[in-house]
């Protein structure tokens, strides 16, 4: 069995989505998610992209991500805004609550642990 895997989006059909209506704050954001790996134990990785808009986020999981392109602002409830552009990385921990605002269409790669 091969023990490595490339993030080759050409081989993955993206899932499309949008924020739940009760979490949407502004805009009409649309998501595309390329799920590259789903491993035992609740580990997921892939690439996510969103068009502009703003919505509430609540994390039960742990996520590391790296911004590949675009510009987004992630703000924790009661905290400062994190302005994220290509090259920036962040970890969101379980219990995080706040907002995600996509100012310019944003693409990130991610690793999520449930």
From TrEMBL:
Gene3D superfamilies: Jelly Rolls. Pfam families: Cupin_3 (PF05899). InterPro entries: RmlC-like_jellyroll, RmlC_Cupin_sf, UGlyAH_Cupin_dom. Residues 38-110 form the (S)-ureidoglycine aminohydrolase cupin domain. SUPFAM superfamilies: RmlC-like cupins (SSF51182). This is Cupin domain-containing protein. It comes from Ensifer oleiphilus.
